[in-house]
């Protein structure tokens, strides 16, 4: 696919599309795709088409303790794990058509340098200080334990496999000392508290400015805003930003001695800024990142899951305030969870399909469609292979795929294999085109509010209206009784399909591109009719109907006998 970046410096508003950084510790599942990556891509594609300058960035998080946990379990190095899964992610994004401007990793020298610069500025400004505290130590392993090397019972919801940094069940962030009955993931033993010295981010410094900033947010999802305000109202706690680790970014100061690293929760969010700088450097325009980070008219929209809300609405904005001169998030449309047959999709617990498994079962556009139609924007969404297949067959194939195929087939057969002239349209013909144009305007309004499920529904409803127009006019009958009128109707239907194609293009990039021969590439958010005389060959179906029986047979558990 073509380079997605809008290059005209005079064009539109600068829009940063910042997307959650996946841990390079295991395959990502469809919940991750629906939670962050697909919505971000849909949003970015639309923003480019309306003329804005989009910079969509993310990368693999290569320093999280899940990586070292997996490396220890497999008897390999963290680098081995990172290389394996970073390559897998890149391949998945390509198969899905995710239109990154840059997908990188937190393992670059650039990211380390940007992280260290931000650390030093916060330290200089008095927002970081040194403190001695007690942290868990595993005497059997003879090492301090990073937060994710500690498990126990969540004090908020009683989930028995909560981690020392966060409960995966209720989503609350934790400190290891909060856990009930903590145990070491390395040896299973009961850890003991020992004194150690670390740098702390004085998050409490930002209580007032963050509260005022959150009060000024308009149009945010209610669950995001309520959760964030609740955090501030409970009182912001200073947090250690270094750990006793040998895997991670080195400190730019040696005050604490050897064996310390910047902790992942602090440095991973800096990736949005470091990726923008890396993108600018790669373009040979090292200062270009400033258009998205320093221009007060620029927008920054962060696509994440709800378990990462506090990092993006409290901690990262606090760090940006402390650093000074950089734009805070414009919106953080965090999605709710995806459940899979009633259980929360989880890579670590093997619940739900991986992205690769989903792409092996379904066409990329079909998978994109089914997930987009069920995005967990306001509440959790339950998925199953059967539900995905049903949506593909009963919605995507039956409505959009069928419309495109029947219109192109009839034009090929009735109009001498070419787009007919536009003369002779009636009020009814113009009405269907006006309806499509209105749908395009509605989709824009919905996407701007990050109501992507509704925007997809609007596009599909427009397709249904064009189908209804064909059923009402019956051009297959007119081809015999009134060939001239048949050509007008089919030309109108082609023009309507051109508009619906634009409305659906952010969701369905591959099938959109497959129609370029007739309609030309989609380059703007407007209905552009194909030129009269453009050849229209016998169409090939855009989508493959899913064999549900075969799909469910593959899903059924094996039985003895």
User: Can you tell me the CATH superfamily of the domain at 14-106 and 268-358?
Assistant: HUPs
Strand order of the largest sheet: 3-2-1-13
Could you say what the CATH architecture of the domain at 14-106 and 268-358 is? 3-Layer(aba) Sandwich
CATH topology of the domain at 14-106 and 268-358: Rossmann fold
What does this structure look like?
This protein is α/β, with parallel strands linked by helices and 561 residues long. Among the domains are: 14-106 and 268-358, Rossmann fold, CATH 3.40.50.620; 385-519, Isoleucyl-tRNA Synthetase, Domain 1 (Orthogonal Bundle), CATH 1.10.730. 46% of the residues lie in helices and 13% in strands. The chain has helices at residues 30-49, 65-74, 78-96, 109-124, 207-215, 222-234, 264-267, 271-282, 290-293, 309-323, 355-361, 364-372, 385-414, 427-448, 452-473, 475-481, 483-504, 509-514, 516-519, 548-555; strands spanning 14-19, 53-60, 102-105, 128-138, 143-144, 150-153, 162-163, 180-184, 192-201, 239-240, 242-243, 261-262, 299-303, 338-340, 343-344, 381-383. It is elongated.
The gist of it:
The protein has 561 residues and is α/β, with parallel strands linked by helices. Helix content is 46%, strand content 13%.
